[in-house]
Structures are given as structure tokens and as C-alpha cells.
Q: What sequence folds into this?
């Protein structure tokens, strides 16, 4: 979800480069973070949660919720995290992203970043051990959420993601930048190798061209509405584009949607 923009600040120090293979450009793509299922015919790239197994014979991207906990009451939710690693408001209450019922991780100091990264690195280890090819580190843009009220800055976010991308590269994984187009110019310095952009075709944002300006054709576009899909498909001859239902349901469940460009 987009909750406003902040101005650009100083460019961060470089992160380590990767020799890992990037997702094939303009390949059939399926977004399966809500549950794994047999990929449709023609799919060459799939993104799945770190708890799932890779799809045999395909390029697999491993989804990790790197900046927020899982939902309240679920494994990996706020109760499974040390309280001092969760962002708090002025009253000392844990700040919750109510759109997803997820607590926000407190990446505001190096000590806290290291404590959080230790837990996230364990998920990255899981991705590498299972044979995934790349990482999708979600919620890079948490610093833009209204509920954060500026407590997390883009400097905090970039410092932290450089830690994770360097670790992922060390495990032989490519690392994708999830959304956060306002920091796309810094992707190389942040160790981010390709883009995974949700709703860039949404008429409210119209950001698809901005991603291509920074990442070239190393981009994957995911849309959730027909209007967004129509706009994203203007670039469908260059990059991977798919429309999914908002809950990213497995095939066969009521509400499942998957469409590709004409």
C-alpha cells in the first residue's frame, strides 16, 4: 500500500554485487506467495513464500517479509519476536500496520537491525538451502506508512536492506527490490538486482516507466485490477506482467484470478 512520498536524501554506501543469475527477462511469471500450486503452462519464473518449496525446473524467487512481522496470531507474528525489536509509538505500544495486521520491525539502530537481520537471515538460509534462485524482500517501503509517523527513515531502510542483500548475495541469491520506486535510483548501491513492482500500472501511480528507467527490462510487474493491468501491459513486450487476485490465492480456490497480457 502506498501512503505518501518523502524526498530523496544522500546516496548510501555501496553494497556487494552479485554473480547470481537474474530472472529471465520477459518470461512467463506467476505470483504464488499466497500458496503454491502447479505453475500454468508457459510460466518460467515463480515467486513463492520461503516456507514453500521451489517449483522444479523453473526460476524461483523466495518471498521474505523482511520489514514487518507476519500477521497477529500467525507463526512469525508479533508474539514470536522480542518486544525490543518491534517499533513502538510514544505510549510504548507496538505499532501495527492495520492493513495487514502486522507489527513493524524497529530498524532504527544498528543493534536492532543486527538482531532483526539475524532472524531474517535464517529465512534467507532456508531459501538458499531449498534451492531458490533469488529473494523478494517485502515491505522495503514501510518507512512511507502513515502509521510509522517518520520514526523509520529511508536511511534506516537502506542501511538495513544492504545488510540483507549482502547476506543473500553471499548465499548465491539474486535480490529483488520490492516496490519503493522512490529509492530505485539507489538500487545498485543497495545491492538490489531487479525490480518486483506491484500496481505500477494503477492509474493513481503510473510508475511502471520509472522502474524501467532504473532497472531496464529486469523487472516484474504484478497488478490486481483490470485498469492497472491495461497500463502495465503497455510494457508487456519487454517485461513479465501478471494480474492476480489481491489475496494471491492458490489455483482452485474461490476468488483466484490470474491473467496475462494479450
A:
Amino acid at each position: 500500500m502506498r501512503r505518501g512520498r518523502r524526498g530523496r536524501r544522500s546516496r548510501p554506501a555501496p553494497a556487494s554485487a552479485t554473480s547470481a543469475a537474474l530472472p529471465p527477462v520477459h518470461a512467463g511469471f506467476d505470483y504464488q506467495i499466497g500458496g503454491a500450486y502447479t505453475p500454468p503452462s508457459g510460466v518460467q519464473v515463480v515467486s513463492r513464500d520461503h516456507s514453500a518449496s521451489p517449483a522444479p525446473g523453473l526460476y524461483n524467487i523466495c518471498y521474505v517479509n523482511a520489514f514487518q512481522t507476519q500477521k497477529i496470531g500467525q507463526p512469525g507474528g508479533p508474539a514470536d519476536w522480542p518486544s525490543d525489536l518491534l517499533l513502538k509509538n510514544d505510549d510504548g505500544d507496538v505499532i501495527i500496520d492495520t492493513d495487514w495486521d502486522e507489527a513493524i520491525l524497529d530498524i532504527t539502530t544498528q543493534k536492532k537491525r543486527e538482531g532483526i537481520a539475524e532472524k531474517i537471515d535464517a529465512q534467507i538460509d532456508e531459501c538458499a538451502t531449498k534451492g531458490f534462485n533469488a529473494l523478494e524482500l517485502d515491505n522495503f517501503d514501510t518507512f512511507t506508512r502513515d502509521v510509522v509517523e517518520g520514526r523509520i527513515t529511508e536511511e534506516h531502510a537502506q542501511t538495513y536492506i544492504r545488510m540483507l542483500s549482502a547476506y543473500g548475495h553471499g548465499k548465491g541469491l539474486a535480490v529483488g527490490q520490492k516496490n519503493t520506486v522512490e529509492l530505485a535510483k539507489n538500487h545498485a548501491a543497495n545491492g538490489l538486482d531487479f525490480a518486483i513492482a506491484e500496481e505500477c500500472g494503477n492509474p493513481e501511480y503510473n510508475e511502471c516507466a520509472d522502474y524501467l528507467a532504473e532497472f531496464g527490462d529486469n523487472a516484474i510487474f504484478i497488478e490486481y485490477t483490470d485498469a492497472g493491468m491495461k497500463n502495465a501491459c503497455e510494457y508487456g513486450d519487454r517485461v513479465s506482467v501478471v494480474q492476480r487476485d489481491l489475496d494471491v490465492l492458490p489455483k482452485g480456490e474461490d476468488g483466484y484470478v490470474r491473467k496475462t497480457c494479450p
User: Anything to note?
Assistant: Confidence is low (pLDDT under 50) at residues 1-14. The domain at 30-192 is CATH 3.20.20.70 (TIM Barrel). Residues 110-130 form the longest helix (21 residues). DSSP finds four helices and twelve strands in the chain.
